[in-house]
Amino acid sequence: SGGQFAPPSFQGTIVLPGFDGGGEWGGPAFDPESHLLYVNANEMPWILRIVPKPAAGASASGRTLYVRNCAGCHREDLLGSPPEFPSLKDIGGRRKETEIAMVVRNGAGRMPGFVHLGDPAINAMARYLATGENQVAAQTRTDSPIDLKYTTDGYNKFLDPGGYPALTPPWGTLNAINLDTGEYAWKIPFGEFPELAEKGMTNTGSENYGGGAVTAGGLFFIGATNHDRKFRAFDKRTGKLLWDTTLPASGNATPAVYEVNGRQFVVIGAGGGKSGAPSGGSYVAFALPR
């Protein structure tokens, strides 16, 4: 190991926690009664590799423009890192050239628009993606002193030949941290791969995206796990699993707790779609016993 501040490299630098954490966008939950902070975390490495970035100039080809502006997510070889960053290989068979140009210009989902590049550059990129033709586009932009010489080759997880994280499990954890002492109150593996669990490899942990909700009644609710689609309730003081159920799609969201006519409910969005998991589009609510 090169230590905490090892720089990216041409051969690839292992980053742990990876680009998605550790703790990530779902956020922690805090219990004012016990002073415990609950954090779900990814425990898997990614690879950060740098590659030369083509210089800007008065003119550039469609491929050069693609590598400068798009390869950091979709990779220089167009293969991307599905499903988060889809493959653009043979996209001309799925989208018209004009449709590709529209997405490049306006953006879509998490992808920003590149209208600032101008129509000649956008059309050259669309032509390259749709047909492979490396058309040269005139540009008014020239080299800038703040241009970087290098970019990354995309978002690459460090995986073993079977497609699982290339380190010893757990690959995801659920943690309760005592904010009075800074010590862990408890820490458990979080999530499973169903196909491994069927072979007896349980409690491996897995990638998880989405936070949890803690209640005054002693419970901690969380979905988040990508592969097993579970929604779980834990004893907030011990981490003991009290209940779980399988959602129609992964609950990559933070649940909400509410009350109707004196009865407590918890609801979670089951959107799925992370790490190759099936997508969904439903809210699932549960009522606590009276």
Task: Please write out the topology.
Elements: E1 13-15, E2 29-31, E3 36-42, E4 46-48, E5 50-52, E6 59-61, H1 62-69, H2 71-74, H3 97-106, H4 119-131, E7 136-138, E8 150-152, E9 156-157, E10 172-178, E11 184-189, H5 194-197, E12 212-214, E13 219-222, E14 230-235, E15 241-246, E16 256-260, E17 263-272, E18 279-287
Antiparallel strand pairs: 1-4, 2-3, 3-10, 4-9, 5-8, 6-7, 10-11, 12-13, 13-14, 14-15, 16-17, 17-18
Report what the structure shows.
It is a single chain. This protein has 290 residues and is α+β, with helices and mostly antiparallel strands. The protein is built from five helices and 18 strands. It folds into two domains: 13-46 and 160-287, Lipocalin (Beta Barrel); 50-153, Cytochrome c-like domain (Cytochrome Bc1 Complex, Chain D, domain 2, Orthogonal Bundle). The protein has helices spanning 62-69, 71-74, 97-106, 119-131, 194-197, and strands at residues 13-15, 29-31, 36-42, 46-48, 50-52, 59-61, 136-138, 150-152, 156-157, 172-178, 184-189, 212-214, 219-222, 230-235, 241-246, 256-260, 263-272, 279-287. The strands form six sheets. A four-stranded antiparallel beta sheet has the order 2-3-10-11, with no helix packed on it. Strands 12-13-14-15 form a four-stranded antiparallel beta sheet, with no helix packed on it. Strands 1-4-9 form a three-stranded antiparallel beta sheet, with no helix packed on it. The mean pLDDT is 91.
Summarize the structure.
By secondary structure, this protein is α+β, with helices and mostly antiparallel strands.
